[in-house]
Amino acid sequence: MNERIDIKLIRSLSQKKYRDETGLFVAEGEKMVQEALNSPFNVVNVIRKEAAGEKIMSRISMMSSPSPSLAVIKKPTDSVISDDIIHEYLADRGLYLALDSIRDPGNLGTIIRTADWFGTNAVFASPDTVDMFNPKVVQSTMGAIFRVRFHYCSIPALCKAVKYAGGNVYGTFLDGQEIYSQKLNIGASSLALVIIGNESNGISSEVEAEVTDRLYIPSYPHDERGSESLNAAVATAITLSEFRRRI
Amino acid sequence: MNERIDIKLIRSLSQKKYRDETGLFVAEGEKMVQEALNSPFNVVNVIRKEAAGEKIMSRISMMSSPSPSLAVIKKPTDSVISDDIIHEYLADRGLYLALDSIRDPGNLGTIIRTADWFGTNAVFASPDTVDMFNPKVVQSTMGAIFRVRFHYCSIPALCKAVKYAGGNVYGTFLDGQEIYSQKLNIGASSLALVIIGNESNGISSEVEAEVTDRLYIPSYPHDERGSESLNAAVATAITLSEFRRRI
Questions:
Q1: Which of A 43-62 lie inside 8 A of B, CB atoms?
Q2: Model pLDDT for residues A52-69, shown as the tens digit of each residue
Q3: Residue B230 touches partner A, C-beta closer than 8 Å
Q4: What interface predicted TM-score (ipTM) does this complex get?
Q5: C-beta separation of B179 from B242 below 8 A
Q6: Per-residue pLDDT at B96 exceeds 50
Q7: Among partner residues B140, B220, B229, which is closest to A244 by beta-carbon distance?
Q8: Considering Cα of A31, then B114, then A199, then A78, what sign does the dihedral take?
Q9: CB-based burial of residue B87 (10 Å sphere; 0-12 exposed, 13-18 middle, 19+ buried)?
Q10: Distances (CA, A) of B215 to A10, B130, B173, B218
Q11: Which of A156, A171, A239, B31 could form a disulfide with A195 if both were Cys (CB 3.0 to 4.6 A apart)?
Q12: Residues 6+ apart with CB under 8 A from B211
């Protein structure tokens, strides 16, 4: 009986409504389970195929081929932060990332994984960004979700806080300065925020108004373009790589 | 009656078996349809919602919300090339990309889109790479599939052809040379092939044996790593960006 209830609960966690109601989310695969257990996250339950059986695993797994293990984990309570405490999250200075309405779960997961690789101090996302505890996001972070500090907040308010603290706000635009040769403010005590815009519409006008440094990732050959854009995770990667190259 | 057959045919094209049997594939959305029509690809049929009706569109569309338009397109006949003619595809010299067993359709589509942005002369893929005409691949190229030259071939044979022509074969490895400071062979008459490995296993040992230049994309901070890898499309983007930065 108890087991039946668990199955229903776990299956429900593929939907944001039930993740919000229960304060829980799911991570699948032995590597993910291990990363969760070794992280500050509160792992409520670990279910393994050898104990639960193949049939139960295939009912609770969200993967096309059921994973050998699955963890049910408590969502952190500081996922959403209010405008008046944003400045506290900038105390480390250095490099930060902000997502202005990223909608694709695979993109968000890959962005978190990339932010982890390049050691950004925190990732911030607009309230209309896809839920970071969506199973596709969690899986495509490849464990980075347990290491990266991630908070939903107002991105215009965040930009204002960065500028108030003497930092720069960077965004990529088709009319920006070529990123390879542009000065990037990445010294020891500097504060830099990189904005990544929505997959279809780019950076919103409200956030664009806060950008201090307009960058451009040049295509090649430079004039005769067919494609007009890069994938959001790819743009994130190239931009963060350029910051880290200068250190 | 004729319409019913078309619906069945179009729906079947989500499976590789039927794409191979019919020599056809599908692209969805008005932008994709326009790009197909403006490309050398042979567009067999364009179906639009205003003519076909919402019901038929929702039956033939592979998207969660049915697209306003859909094109049925002939696959090119030179998708697979044999070892003895590989050298003909290297005639332009410059920058080429090779994929050693990319399995995720979203990754392949994003890689093709990125290769288009950075103007690689051609993209080659191992026979076990996911089918480039898989609908998820086509859609995530955002139209680049109609511009990028893409061929399946033996990657070890390709590497040998590149080296025979005096070119370099680049791959990223954890023990490689830091890419930012490494000399990259990207002069006017140079020939460079960048290898991107499988999502889980990286570059296969058979291909690794052909690599002339081992690169490494450094993580930050440089010593205390949690994450051990980057997404395949992200690694592609950073590597191609580094080549183009030097020009």
A1: none
A2: 999 999 999 988 888 999
A3: yes
A4: 0.94
A5: yes
A6: yes
A7: B220
A8: positive
A9: middle
A10: 42, 25, 6, 9
A11: A171
A12: B159, B169, B170, B171, B173, B195, B203
What letter represents residue A180's amino acid?
Answer: Y
Report helix, strand or coil for B177: strand
CA dist B31 and B145 (Å) reads 13
Residue type (1 letter), A177: Q
> CA dist B173 to A12, B87, B153, B217, B231, Å?
40, 26, 23, 8, 13
- Packed helices A232-245 and B105-117: angle between N→C axes, nearest 10 degrees: 60
Specify the DSSP class assigned to residue B240: H
| pLDDT at residue A247 in the model | 80
The per-residue pLDDT for range A117-130, each reduced to its tens digit, is 999 999 999 999 99
CA A180 to chain B, closest CA, distance in angstroms equals 6
Helix (H) or strand (E) holding B28, with range, is: strand B24-28
Supply B55's token pair: 């019901």
Chain A hits for B231, Cβ within 8 Å: 110, 113-114, 140, 142, 233
**pLDDT tens-digit series, residues A13-34:** 999 999 999 999 999 999 999 9
Q: Which residue has the tokens 């509160």?
A: A42
Q: Are A221 and B118 an interchain contact pair (Cβ–Cβ within 8 Å)?
A: no
Tokens of A246: 């200068």
CB of B19 within 8 A of CB of B13? yes
Mean pLDDT in chain A?
93
Q: Which residues contact A64 (CB under 8 A, 6 or more apart)?
A: none
A220 touches chain B (CB under 8 A): yes
Cβ atoms within 10 Å, residue B131: 19
Q: Are A98 and A125 in contact (CB under 8 A)?
A: yes
DSSP, collapsed to helix, strand or coil, labels residue A24 as strand
pLDDT in tens, B200-228: 999 999 999 999 999 999 998 865 556 67
Chain B's closest residue to A105, CA to CA, is: B106
Q: How far is CA B132 from CA B148, B150, B205, in A?
A: 11, 8, 24
Q: What are the chain A neighbours of B219 within 8 Å (beta carbons)? A: 117-119
Distance CA(B71)–CA(A23), nearest Å, equals: 44
Contact B110 A233 (CB under 8 A): yes
Q: How far apart are CA A132 and CA B35, in angstroms?
A: 33
pTM of the model: 0.95
Give the torsion sign (CA, B186, B188, B191, B197): positive
